Amino acid sequence: MNVNMPRPSWMWIYGVIGILILGYYVFGDSNDTPVRSDWTAVERMVERGEVEKIRIVNRDAAQVFLRPEAAARYRADTTEPAYRRLPETGAQLTFTIGSVDAFREDLRGAEEASGYDVPVVYENRDNGWMNLLVNLLPWVLIIGVWFLLMRSMSRGGAGGAGGGIMNVGKARAQVFDKEQSKRVTFKDVAGLEEAKVEIMEIVDFLRKADKYKELGAKIPKGALLVGPPGTGKTLLAKAVAGEADVPFLSMSGSDFVEMFVGVGASRVRDLFEQAKQKAPCILFIDEIDAIGRARGKNAGFSGNDERENTLNQLLTEMDGFQTNQGVIVLAATNRADILDKALMRAGRFDRQIEVGLPDVKEREEIFGVHLRSLRLDPDLDRTFLAKQTPGFSGADIANVCNEAALIAARHDKKFVSKEDFLAAIDRIVGGLERRNKIISDEEKRVIAYHEAGHATVSWILEHASPLIKVTIIPRGKALGAAWYLPEERQITTRAQLLDEMAATLGGRVSEQLTFGHVSTGALNDLERVTKQAYAMVAYYGMSEAVGTLSYYDSTGQNDMALTKPYSEQTAQLLDAEARRMIDEAYALA
To answer: Can you give the pTM of this predicted structure?
Structure first.
């Protein structure tokens, strides 16, 4: 019979030893240990003439030697069980005294009462082990702390990314290699076909370098993944790590930022040093805008800004005098407009790969990936789900799938159905339903007419987005909402923009026509319409009075500009044209 006995732990062994020592002191008391007593009991013994002598040890402990016949009598006494263990030899009793002078006074009174003189002996004992321990303990602590500190430093240095004070300039890069068990591959990345083709070329170059070198082609220095949040830039980099048969080093841009001067540049140097030792390899820097911000734009910093030093070191490492043969740098950001121009140039990042929001076909593929783990209704149409989520990123779709599963579980369903997905989309777009919010009947009537106005105008106008659903149940901060399914188009005409503005103003118009007055409920509508009107006039050149001019800055480099790029007269004209367009849309509604 094979019984898997647990391995004995060191803590169990220490516990058993401690119990044995404790038991020895409690039960195995040796026969020569004096019994603890007090002066009151000893005083009675002195008065009865039973004490042979008293020894004072180190001026604070008194040891009492009884006459042999008295000690024998006490051992046989059944009324005092503590005295049964009186030692045969040496001192029989011990007690603590406050001061020697006070003890001598008390003893003299007892001697006078008994008529016996009790000799008192004084003895100073050197407690060698205790003194040695007290003297050695500080040194033991100092040596132990020093040993632990040095051990942690050496352990940190071995990994190349230590947390010790000596390794503050080391790069804390995560290393992935082909032996990694849980790998993400391009099969796990749905959509992003063009981006995958671009990235796959880099992976293919690392795998079949000779094919390219025969034609004289050089390996790309780097690729920059640019796109909105949640579109899969980091996931794409993970897939590269899974697909490439070469080491993959990953770091975040914020890992280079430290409070100590020069640490960022030191970590950049160390990171590229690690990469060169593993070459050919891929280096991934996520959220590179943390260190790659355009230099000279930070008004609050001096010329010796730590981030600028880190960026300068990164520029030098990527394409300086030193050649990083076989090190490909991948980076990801959703703020490419604020990156330094020197970082973006060819030779550092040869390619900029746009990772945009998925279209309806790509969204269907993304749903396919995230629905694998869910127990679904057999009749669920994934194409329908893809059409219901325009403008959703990959992260949003993952959230929709998870919310739908949570909603289905909350209602004790056996599988996730279409209604759960629609409820999840409503929850993400509009917020949580607030059915218990206190709203008066008059307010409900105003909200109902307001939302009906949106619905009516959008239903009648040719270019307005098709209506899906209208509700007057409060969600999030909104008291009511209307859901539309906007057409997925790349360009929009002036007529389409005007129809959309009219549909947005439909709620305000409905309140005006029905009740003869307006409310504050149209705040969000007016904000959207105003921004749309100014964009049409100042950006898209859709006003005859302003002409074909655009004051849009696509570079994002004019953050520090204190003046507008047009005169005061033009500003008045822009205001007048924006107001005219809003009035036109209001009249149309």
So the answer is: 0.64
